[in-house]
Amino acid sequence: MSGIFICYRREDSAGHVGRLRDRLITRFGRRQVFEDIDSIKPGEDFTQAIKDAMTSCDVVLVVIGKQWLTAFDAKGSSAAVSKPTRRLDNPRDFVRQEIAAALTSKRRVIPVLVQGATMPNQEDLPENLQGLALHNAIEISDGRWDYDVDRLAEAIQKKPLVGRKALVAASIGLGVIAFGFATYLIFIRSNPLSPEHSFFARLPVNPIASELPRSVQPPERSGPKQKAGAETAQYPIHLRANQEARLITTNHIYKILSAELDRANSSTLLLRFVVRLTNGGNYDANFWNASFRLLVDGVSRAPISDLNELVAGHSAKEGTVEFTVPDKATDVVLQLKVGGEIADIPIDLTETHSQPKPVAQTEQQQSNFRNAKFPIRLQADQEVHLTRSDHTYKILSAELDRPNSSTLLVRFVIRLTNGGNYDANFWNASFRLLVDGVPRAPISDLNELVAGHSAKEGTVEFTIPETTTRIVLQVRGGDEVPEIPIDLTPVKL
């Protein structure tokens, strides 16, 4: 994919486009996304820059808000003048020029509906834009923004084979395959082979776990970093951990919490990492196999794990990434690739470490949790005030519960008092819990609106390890992030 061009009208959908652009940059990289405001350099010819960007892009997103179709020039509205002044009716309108160029050049055009807008009818569009109405649109709603943007990203990535040339090529390919298979069957009938010589009989059941016949085993070699006695090592072997890498573009920090070698078979090792992604951005981040590669003696390897998670903005999550490596590997580097940014973490296969031990709680906390009858009531009534929005958050109740043997559930009932004039979001995105310094997103489904000059209560829940020693509730409101330390000591009734 050469790039993504975002076509929109600033006064109609600038805010939504800003959020969408940030998510697409996280997914595809900054160089893959072109938006006229940020992408055109000062002094550069606007028309030529748009033309060049359109030429280099494969996908054009036409963002349509409620005012997109009826936007008027600054001269006035249709009621103020006798002739229509709708911007789309002006041949010099940049939005019209961009869409017309995309339709003419046969680029993939995807209408993106925001603010609850609907797809315009053909008769409502200028003649050279009427083809836009024939394209399937994707709606992105504020209530399910992350899900809808992920659907759009998947649609952008899909490149179906279409058109007559593709069908002809596919037909020729199938014909060649069919001819070759028929020839093979004729050969087998004329020259029957014993079962052990059959091609299919010689396919390994599991290519990773299978061993090559002794006659074709590669010559033995010992790498400079291969540790003496590795053949008799006690697996799994624990390697050095706690290395981390920061990706500046996305404000993501990846930290290796543990690393270990295990043996998959006689010639292959399994390298397993437990990695924490701390997402310092405002929007969800992909935490998946596609972000990781392992350079093994200079050769790039993909993970064999199935990591596929999302990490909410300003929070963290752990995941496991696994690779197979030859047991004679000498140089191993864990590579992180997000968008156009790459960070490398060298892995030393010669350093072994003891099994890391979890952080222990204080004896008092251990005693409290061991003998307690859940749920446990915690201190409440703390509150914080956000000055800019005039919002006050007050903890009405706080308690600990035990969902399983190693995890605790922290539950807050919170009241938001909205002193402003407009509706306020009362949702998970406003809350984070610092668990021994690591930010965690809620697992609850709080998603409410609080009208101006009114109040509403809601429940926010987090899971924490039983070994947690300190938690702090963060309330996020733009640049204001006040914190409320939470005492884990049970309140005596």
Give a written overview of the molecule.
Helix content is 19%, strand content 33%. By secondary structure, the chain is of the alpha+beta class. The protein folds into 4 domains: 4-157, Rossmann fold (3-Layer(aba) Sandwich), CATH 3.40.50; 168-205; 233-347, Immunoglobulin-like; 363-486, Immunoglobulin-like (Sandwich). The strands form 7 sheets. The protein has a 5-stranded parallel sheet with strand order 2-1-3-4-5, sandwiched between helices. Strands 6, 7, 8, 9 and 14 form a 5-stranded antiparallel sheet that branches.
Descriptors:
4 domains; 7 helices; five-stranded parallel sheet; Immunoglobulin-like; flat; 19% helix; 493 residues; Rossmann fold; five-stranded antiparallel sheet; 27 strands; alpha+beta
Radius of gyration from the alpha-carbon trace, in angstroms: 29 Å
The total of beta strands comes to 27
The computed structural class is alpha+beta
The coarse overall form would be flat
The main sheet comes to:
5 strands, parallel
CATH architecture of the largest domain: 3-Layer(aba) Sandwich
Average pLDDT confidence is 80
Q: Proportion of β residues?
A: 25-35%
So how many helices? 7
- Uncertain segments are 76-82, 160-169, 193-230
Which range best describes the helical content: under 10%, 10-25%, 25-40%, 40-55%, 55-70% or over 70%? Answer: 10-25%
The CA-CA distance between the termini, in Å, is 63 Å
Strand numbers in spatial order across the main sheet: 2-1-3-4-5
Number of domains: 4
What is the name of the CATH topology of the largest domain? Rossmann fold
